[in-house]
Design a protein that fits this description.
The structure is a single chain. The chain is an alpha/beta fold. It has helices at 21-24, 42-49, 67-73, 90-95, 120-127, 171-198, 232-235, 245-250, 252-261, 268-279, 322-330, and strands at residues 29-32, 35-36, 77-82, 100-103, 134-139, 204-208, 214-215, 223-224, 239-243, 266-267, 305-306, 312-313. The strands form five sheets. Strands 1-9-6 form a three-stranded antiparallel β-sheet, sandwiched between helices. A three-stranded parallel β-sheet has the order 4-3-5, sandwiched between helices.
């Protein structure tokens, strides 16, 4: 699970800057192009990614367990690792359903800055355990502001990025820092793929971000995220699925479906759990294969956004402007009304 990563800044989606050089050469990766999240806030988006809750039925969150419990009941050893602090939210509740869970900053001072790649040695230790089936969920800090703190200075690629205070006049420096954070995410995901590929087993990785970000992109001069009225920059998110060579041999029909669905409209908040369940071969009445992008019969349904009152709104009822809809159409985002 990424944080504050917007799809428009990934060069694998056509961004002119080379922000994803590692993912661009990753074999077995399917990049879904037409994906929107249903919330521009972490505390709502992440629980929807981890459970059956959606904008259309958010209240189910109060009476259901999450995807981690489904994998546990199907015989998987489950691990939840977070580079964010626990905050007594549904993220914590669903994360702590795992056999093993850890918030790596929990015991550190509040001002501690821990990079996402600090998660990798822990992941490697988990992968070394003799579990036959595993689910590992990572909650990263991704591209959350302050962007300069999301990567080491040795990895600075776009310059200058040192004038990063939140002011419109600093947009280029802010954008450089943000794009550097995306390059660092690119490295993180590529390293995870290499670790899984090295195991030479049937493995998959799904990556998406909770929401995107505003970076003074137009004359509205919006910055950050979580505003009551979302923007296109907050809703358009990356959605990537990688499959190992062994998985591809064992499940060619899944790989074919992934590739066939990659340009179709997707609501990440709806489809993530169903895709994970189907790719893992878990049979449950909760699985709706038509909502899984790993199924040949996938279809999106009408897009919705979860507002501040936990009510589902169609996108044209959210207060989004014509600028937002024009941008999304230019990006190839369909199924908007």
């Amino acid at each position: 699970i990424g944080e504050t990563a917007r799809a428009g800044e990934f060069s694998i989606y056509g961004y002119q800057r080379n922000t994803t050089p590692e993912l661009a050469k990753t074999q077995g990766l399917t990049a879904f192009t037409n994906v929107l999240t249903q919330s521009n806030t972490t505390h709502k988006s992440v629980p929807m990614l981890l459970s059956l809750a959606t904008a259309e039925d958010y209240d189910v969150i109060y009476r259901t367990k999450g995807v981690i419990s489904a994998f546990k009941e199907a015989g998987f050893h489950t691990t939840f690792l977070s580079n964010q602090r626990p905050n007594h939210s549904f993220i914590d509740i669903f994360g702590k359903e795992a056999d093993d869970w850890r918030f790596i900053k929990e015991s550190l001072p509040e001002d501690s800055n821990v990079l996402d790649q600090s998660l990798l040695p822990i992941v490697n230790k988990v992968l070394e355990q003799p579990y036959k089936k595993q689910l590992i969920v990572l909650h990263t800090y991704g591209s959350h502001f302050n962007y300069r703190e999301r990567y080491p200075q040795s990895e600075v690629f776009f310059k200058p990025e040192d004038n990063a205070s939140a002011e419109y006049e600093n947009r280029q420096s802010l954008l450089n820092a943000y794009d550097n954070s995306i390059r660092y995410t690119d490295q993180l995901l590529a390293n995870i793929v290499r670790m899984l590929a090295h195991k030479d087993c049937a493995a998959t990785m799904l990556y998406t971000s909770d929401h995107g970000e505003n970076i003074f992109d137009d004359d509205r001069r919006l910055f950050l995220h979580a505003s009551p009225i979302p923007s296109c920059f907050e809703l358009h998110v990356p959605f990537l699925v990688w499959t190992s060579a062994s998985y591809q041999r064992q499940h060619p029909e899944v790989v074919s479906a992934l590739r066939g669905n990659k340009n179709k409209p997707v609501q990440s908040s709806v489809s993530t759990i169903h895709t994970l369940l189907q790719m893992a071969g878990i049979q449950t009445p909760c699985l709706k294969s038509r909502l899984s992008v790993a199924d040949a019969g996938y279809r999106c349904g009408r897009r919705h956004y979860l507002n501040d009152h936990n009510l589902p709104l169609m996108l044209d009822k959210t207060g989004m402007t014509q600028t937002d809809f024009r941008n999304m159409e230019l990006w190839g985002i369909t199924h908007l009304k």
